[in-house]
Write a structure and sequence with these properties.
single chain; mainly beta; AttH-like fold; 13-stranded antiparallel sheet; ten-stranded antiparallel sheet; 1 helix; 25 strands; 2% helix; globular
Length: 373
């Protein structure tokens, strides 16, 4: 699901609500890979979202969690018909974060540009670069997500916040759809409240992580989500709780639930990806989420439920989801009231034994925080 996906609050601040001319997600979308790893103009919002856990090369201890996301925010349904390379229909938005589990530090960086030849944009298939932008002010170079023939290469740097990523990923499991034919409903009432959604739930990852000017060679695993659509949240929905969980038995579990303004559950979906890559969609009656202890941000005042219990018929024991670091809130300096919790979590059973790792995203918590997508 995603904003970090909350970053798409900027879509409303910049361009307002979707119009009738935008394309909406439908169950009969004609997928064409690898072409569909690239952009889909005509849909209002689109994102490429990658999270992962990394350890220093030669070490068994997981040291870093990371998030890297590009968003295409549609400003106009079509590029203006004018003889200029600077005519654009989109904004380019990027979010990146690195959490150091050893020190407990969480660093966040962001970019937001109009799509232009100088600032950033979205290339056409088969160009290897899918999306790119200039780095934030104070840093030379560019951010990018590129197709390497099997999965994605990631690059970003922000010298002001002191973080950087240069990562190569390769699929350890095949791509899976998060919903029948990738059609991912977000509301029971209106079929237009939906996205087109697929994932690579396990990507072998190598490269470097830079923190405070020190680059470290790293290896690990990542999870990549791609979504696009025009009207995901219903008017009465406030936000979502989203889980990407990699179990030690080789299975991967994606869960999300959307919440109403009063905090009650509005809609939910779950996908289990078996060790062989087979995806199964779970019936609502087959699984449950229960929030536990919360954490209140000293920056925004928002209280997030960071501990959860996941039960499901296909699990041999309830899974307890716990944050590796409490303070993994991302707070935008570019868009007012844009903040959300996006962080690395561990999975344990009732005896405290390790069962896996994952990422948790919590949006729509706190005054004025509602992702507008």
């Amino acid at each position: 699901m995603k904003t970090s996906r909350t970053a798409l609050l900027a879509a409303t601040l910049l361009v307002g609500t979707p119009s009738a001319e935008w394309r909406y997600a439908t169950p009969d979308f004609d997928w064409q890979f690898p072409r569909d790893h690239w952009t889909h103009d005509g849909f209002k919002t689109e994102w490429w979202y990658v999270t992962g856990h990394l350890r220093a090369a030669g070490s068994d201890a997981v040291r870093f969690g990371y998030q890297f996301t590009f968003f295409r925010v549609g400003v106009l349904e079509d590029t203006p018909a004018m003889p200029s390379a600077w005519a654009s229909a989109n904004m380019v938005m990027g979010h990146a974060a690195i959490t150091d589990f050893e020190t407990g530090a969480h660093r966040f960086s962001e970019i937001l540009y109009r799509e232009t030849p100088f600032l950033g944009g979205f290339n056409a298939y088969p160009d290897t670069v899918i999306a790119w932008s200039r780095a934030p002010a104070g840093t030379d170079g560019t951010w990018s997500i590129s197709w390497n023939g099997g999965a994605f290469d990631l690059a970003m740097e922000d010298r002001v916040t002191g973080i950087g990523l240069s990562l190569e990923t390769r699929p350890a499991k095949p791509r899976v759809f998060q919903g029948p034919n990738g059609y991912s409903r977000k509301s029971a009432r209106d079929p237009r409240n939906a996205s087109l959604y697929y994932s690579f739930t396990r990507l072998s990852t190598t490269g470097t992580v830079t923190v405070d000017g020190r680059a470290r060679s790293v290896v690990g695993e990542s999870w990549m989500d791609k979504e696009f659509g025009s009207n995901q949240l219903a008017d009465d929905q406030r936000g979502w709780d989203w889980f990407s969980l990699r179990l030690e038995d080789g299975r991967d579990l994606m869960l999300y639930r959307l919440r109403n303004a009063d905090g009650t559950e509005s809609y939910r979906h779950a996908t289990m990806v078996d060790a062989d890559g087979t995806a199964r969609f779970l019936a609502d009656s087959a699984w449950a989420l229960a929030p536990g202890d919360g954490w209140t941000s000293p920056v925004t005042g928002a209280t997030y439920p960071l501990e959860w219990t996941v039960t499901a018929d296909i699990l041999d024991t309830p899974l307890r989801v716990r944050p590796q670091v409490q303070h993994q809130e991302n707070v935008s300096a570019l868009v007012p009231n844009l903040y959300y919790w996006e962080g690395a979590v561990v999975l344990v059973d009732g005896n405290g034994a390790s069962r896996g790792r994952g990422y948790l995203e919590l949006t729509g918590y706190g005054a004025g925080s509602r992702p507008a997508i």
